[in-house]
Amino acid sequence: MKAYELTLQVMLKRATDLFGHKEIVSEEPDGTTHRYTYDDAYDRICRLANALDDLGVDPGARLSVMAINHHRHFELYFGLACSGRSIHMTNHMLPDEHIVEIVNEAEDELIFVDPAFVDTVENVADQFETVEQYVILDDDVPETSLEPVISYEDLLEGRDTEYDWPMLDEDREAGICYTSGTTGLPKGASYSHRDLYLHTVTHSHVDVFGISENDTVMPVVPMYHVNAWGLPYTATMCGSKLVLPGPKTDAEEIATLIDRENVTVTAAVTTVWLEMAEFYDERDDVELESLERVLIGGTSPPEWLMEKFDKEIDAPIQQGYGMTEAAPHLVNTMTTSEVQELSESERYQQQMKPGLPAPGVQIRLRAPNGEAVPHDGESTGEIQARSPWLIDEYYARPDETQQVFTDDGWFKTGDVGVIDEYGYLEVVDRLDDVIKSGGEWISSLELENELMAHDAVEEATVINIEHEKWDERPVAYVVQREDVTEDGLKAHLLERFPKWWLPDQLVFIESIPKTTTGKFDKKVLRDQFTSEHGRLPIDE
Amino acid sequence: MKAYELTLQVMLKRATDLFGHKEIVSEEPDGTTHRYTYDDAYDRICRLANALDDLGVDPGARLSVMAINHHRHFELYFGLACSGRSIHMTNHMLPDEHIVEIVNEAEDELIFVDPAFVDTVENVADQFETVEQYVILDDDVPETSLEPVISYEDLLEGRDTEYDWPMLDEDREAGICYTSGTTGLPKGASYSHRDLYLHTVTHSHVDVFGISENDTVMPVVPMYHVNAWGLPYTATMCGSKLVLPGPKTDAEEIATLIDRENVTVTAAVTTVWLEMAEFYDERDDVELESLERVLIGGTSPPEWLMEKFDKEIDAPIQQGYGMTEAAPHLVNTMTTSEVQELSESERYQQQMKPGLPAPGVQIRLRAPNGEAVPHDGESTGEIQARSPWLIDEYYARPDETQQVFTDDGWFKTGDVGVIDEYGYLEVVDRLDDVIKSGGEWISSLELENELMAHDAVEEATVINIEHEKWDERPVAYVVQREDVTEDGLKAHLLERFPKWWLPDQLVFIESIPKTTTGKFDKKVLRDQFTSEHGRLPIDE
Q1: Quick check: A347 contacting B, CB < 8 Å?
Q2: Is the entire prediction scored with pTM above 0.95?
Q3: Of A213, A334, A362, which is closest to B336 when you measure between CB atoms?
Q4: Host domain of residue B455
Q5: B31 has a pLDDT exceeding 90
Q6: Among residues B219, B249, B279, which one ends one of the domains?
Q7: C-beta atoms of A214 and B336 within 8 A
């Protein structure tokens, strides 16, 4: 072992050594607000570690947590990893069979679960192969068939508030998260202490998100998926005030929390901010005065949303681009000195892009044949990445691992991108979602973004449908904000794209189905369209 | 090896991948200004690596560099380390016998030397045991007895501008720097690639110095000692415009460079900024408009200087505290959210202190008996530190190593400090400079600071002199800015300190002797005083 290992213990120690008085505010599943300090949290983290020892939980065990963003979940983040165990962030919204699959593959020995998800666990508990006990994240245990079972508060009750933390190797696993599995089964991304340390310190780099002790940080993105983008770790390392919104995830609730707790930086997928923008217009009592910036990911925001947050709300949107395998951060919006010199509108175009690789991260574009793609702002290629905190394998999946790494060790993201002359990355599509029409590529994502840039459009997605002549053709699904015709939208698209890019059909719907992580679920729409219409005919 | 090693190659690659067009401006020893880009530098770094291969320099060799801050020195920083060699930053101002000692101990195979220091090298060349050749950092070779010798430009001439960088282990040595050896012989601090990577990414943390691509960075602190505080690495990782001031290190020259190159952040020891403040008042043509902040270290700045840079120049001073063994950064000024709430004057008092440990760094205070010292703003103890980039041994010195590490692996800095309720560290003295008077400690540094806080005082230092009754007593040396009497200064000190703290003698001098790294050379004064006066008599 090195003289100084990069571990989560360092973050926890820094928070308590220097910022033990800083607050962690948690909205609880039962509707109450819980307030305490990093010092208080530390006491309970020690109790937790002692309790696990007393229960005989192996120091190298992996334990599942199915919970929303609240203070007990925060304690589990550090209590498990710092005592040498690993937290398996389990997404309760996965289909039952996926939950069974990943809990068994990860060999979870114990499941910590919110009362709200007890039903989910009960449904599949008899299929778990390694789970030995259950802990309900509450004061009491509800009526349940799970056993043996104990409440989290009973587990902590009477334990020692000090703990002799073991020396840990930085390469030891601190957590594991499974991909959401939109194609195929979820795959496990195991994060070492070192991965999370390096991700954390880079997160606060002034050219990344610059998260500071002076910030009040509210991760709306769930702690049950990809470490809530790393924010609980970053806030702890910095000693930032932390606000965990619990079940409060709609625009009104988030706005209220921002104003009440003086949140300066918050993070959520794009759809949350679309909702918030509307809400902000409607209500005079919403200030968002403290808000300094908004972290966004998943899909790129439309221009009007960027402008609204920048100019009206005075809290510019900063995009991040990443993925489960990268814990998740790779690329982020920044305004380089070169871009600073451009006109306002050109600058805007740059800020709309996910941006530049964070220090330590390397990205490149590769053609299907593996050749380098020029960074000319036009040529597209698969985005490939390296970073000190990117996984180098999927847990227990040598075959899937081999598929996603190049021979020279770069991770194939499966995303299609463009890199411009300023080095800014733009994600134009998923490799799976690119529409292969007559030997050419049509970007479903670019069509979606252009549709969403229309004032009358709330949300839009474009899918590829098999076509008798052209192999594949695009079909668009649109949620209207105001009345608009198919012809109106097509005319709008023609301003930017050639005629052969236009969707063969444009379907108006009430809302677009989403995956458990808030992305558009194209698979559902594709299945639905195909079962209704089959392939697209030649004469369309 | 890990899938992704933390090396200087990552920094160099980031600069050229994303910011190859950004400028490196270098003031040359011959008085000219040299301008080129990171891309240009990269070509020459490749040439350098190829040249070393062609010369047959071992991939694991250690090579000495004796040079001021210029573009060739920058190339050596990366060309040596990225090709697997190690750069021995050799301080040409060390006494001859120290230079011989460290070049031999480090087993340097080659010496790169500025024309200005050729004399120095010639004087001792016959005592070098491992040096096989010399490279003069210039276009041509001057008249010299060194041999074999070649000019740097001849060395690079005609070499390939591409290089196939080897995979390096992050624990491999990238550089070595010797302590300045104010007490005893210099001791070697060896920095691994990992040490420098972690130092670099932390340097840009928003709660440290937040160095950004948008900054123009000018290290006045020398590249021949402790990596110019790490700034050449940090600027490269960020892609910041870099200004290397070469021989221009006085206030007028630095001010001119700041204005000409729009420098936003610069770093130098306190004495430089004392000079600058005076110069700024005298001259109307000095703007310092672009300057955003000033990094300072070595000794704490007096309050009037802090205020001047903050309020008049609008470029607040940010202190750093560190040492050769820590590469050098450990602690820095920041304004925590708690301190933000204080009154302006209280806030000022906090900002005068070196501040808080950077993320990853841990500090603690220990009494002479090893017991913990409370963080109460009053109790003093030795500052002990841990950090991911702190050395864990002196090169080839097991005995000296053992003396500076505690049994539990903390580095004993030899500095005496106080930590206040806000977690801010204040350095009150060197353990060696504390005055042990009648069983109590008097802080020479606190006396110095208070003397320098007097309007009439330019510089002051306080030394310990043996005393027949009290063991030791303080003697002060003062450089006047305006006329002032010994009684006037003593009255000033009595406002803050008890009577028994007052110096037994107060000597007015023209200037205080400094060490090669710009610190007050107390040893010289102590020897001088003792040879003139012997011990202090009882009746004083």
Answers
A1: no
A2: no
A3: A213
A4: 435-533
A5: yes
A6: B249
A7: yes
